[in-house]
Amino acid sequence: MRILGVDPGLTRCGLGVIESASARRVTLVDVRVATSPSTFETPARLAQISAVLEAVLDEHRPEALAMERIFARSNVSTIMGTAQVSGVIMLAAERRGIPLSLYTPSEVKAAVTGDGRAGKEQVTFMVQRLLGLAEAPRPADAADALAIGIAHAWRGAAAPVGSGATTDAQRRWAEAEKAARRRS
């Protein structure tokens, strides 16, 4: 399955395309960071991010799109920009009929590292290791986009948890999700 992972942002939007062949095997197809200058007006910035997104969608034709879910931060302007870019991405996925899944940062960290509170360095290291890359993806937005894609591959498109084809991180994630459902 070909998956586009997206780390939305108005200044830097990470776009990572991976292939998932099995529960444990993911390979890098492409990774980019769409940027827009803060000196541009918001509509022009959204158009610039959208143009790069559309190019990635046209070139790689993903079967699924996974994106980081917006979470509360103290900076309202950052939240607004991220929300606006997320809307552009959601619209592009909907228009193309690509299934979209949203993941919290802690869900992504748990899937990739086994720890929902892992730091950026640990996530980047695991992305590099899981994809067999000689160097870590830079900037962090690129690594985050790839981590989001990997999280989706392991959660939605992979072997069922407990099948023997799952990793320790996948089993821990499934247990955390089950516990969260019981609490709600």
Automatic annotation (TrEMBL):
<keyword id="KW-0234">DNA repair</keyword>
<dbReference type="InterPro" id="IPR036397">
    <property type="entry name" value="RNaseH_sf"/>
</dbReference>
<keyword id="KW-0479">Metal-binding</keyword>
<dbReference type="GO" id="GO:0000287">
    <property type="term" value="F:magnesium ion binding"/>
</dbReference>
<comment type="similarity">
    <text>Belongs to the RuvC family.</text>
</comment>
<dbReference type="GO" id="GO:0005737">
    <property type="term" value="C:cytoplasm"/>
</dbReference>
<feature type="active site">
    <location>
        <position position="7"/>
    </location>
</feature>
<comment type="subunit">
    <text>Homodimer which binds Holliday junction (HJ) DNA. The HJ becomes 2-fold symmetrical on binding to RuvC with unstacked arms; it has a different conformation from HJ DNA in complex with RuvA. In the full resolvosome a probable DNA-RuvA(4)-RuvB(12)-RuvC(2) complex forms which resolves the HJ.</text>
</comment>
<comment type="function">
    <text>The RuvA-RuvB-RuvC complex processes Holliday junction (HJ) DNA during genetic recombination and DNA repair. Endonuclease that resolves HJ intermediates. Cleaves cruciform DNA by making single-stranded nicks across the HJ at symmetrical positions within the homologous arms, yielding a 5'-phosphate and a 3'-hydroxyl group; requires a central core of homology in the junction. The consensus cleavage sequence is 5'-(A/T)TT(C/G)-3'. Cleavage occurs on the 3'-side of the TT dinucleotide at the point of strand exchange.</text>
</comment>
<keyword id="KW-0238">DNA-binding</keyword>
<feature type="binding site">
    <location>
        <position position="68"/>
    </location>
    <ligand>
        <name>Mg(2+) 2</name>
    </ligand>
</feature>
<feature type="binding site">
    <location>
        <position position="141"/>
    </location>
    <ligand>
        <name>Mg(2+) 1</name>
    </ligand>
</feature>
<keyword id="KW-0460">Magnesium</keyword>
<dbReference type="GO" id="GO:0008821">
    <property type="term" value="F:crossover junction DNA endonuclease activity"/>
</dbReference>
<feature type="active site">
    <location>
        <position position="68"/>
    </location>
</feature>
<dbReference type="GO" id="GO:0006281">
    <property type="term" value="P:DNA repair"/>
</dbReference>
<feature type="active site">
    <location>
        <position position="141"/>
    </location>
</feature>
<dbReference type="Pfam" id="PF02075">
    <property type="entry name" value="RuvC"/>
</dbReference>
<keyword id="KW-0233">DNA recombination</keyword>
<keyword id="KW-0227">DNA damage</keyword>
<keyword id="KW-0540">Nuclease</keyword>
<dbReference type="GO" id="GO:0003677">
    <property type="term" value="F:DNA binding"/>
</dbReference>
<keyword id="KW-0378">Hydrolase</keyword>
<protein>
    <recommendedName>
        <fullName>Crossover junction endodeoxyribonuclease RuvC</fullName>
        <ecNumber>3.1.21.10</ecNumber>
    </recommendedName>
</protein>
<dbReference type="GO" id="GO:0006310">
    <property type="term" value="P:DNA recombination"/>
</dbReference>
<dbReference type="InterPro" id="IPR002176">
    <property type="entry name" value="X-over_junc_endoDNase_RuvC"/>
</dbReference>
<feature type="binding site">
    <location>
        <position position="7"/>
    </location>
    <ligand>
        <name>Mg(2+) 1</name>
    </ligand>
</feature>
<dbReference type="InterPro" id="IPR012337">
    <property type="entry name" value="RNaseH-like_sf"/>
</dbReference>
<feature type="compositionally biased region" description="Basic and acidic residues">
    <location>
        <begin position="169"/>
        <end position="184"/>
    </location>
</feature>
<keyword id="KW-0255">Endonuclease</keyword>
<feature type="region of interest" description="Disordered">
    <location>
        <begin position="160"/>
        <end position="184"/>
    </location>
</feature>
<dbReference type="GO" id="GO:0048476">
    <property type="term" value="C:Holliday junction resolvase complex"/>
</dbReference>
<keyword id="KW-0963">Cytoplasm</keyword>
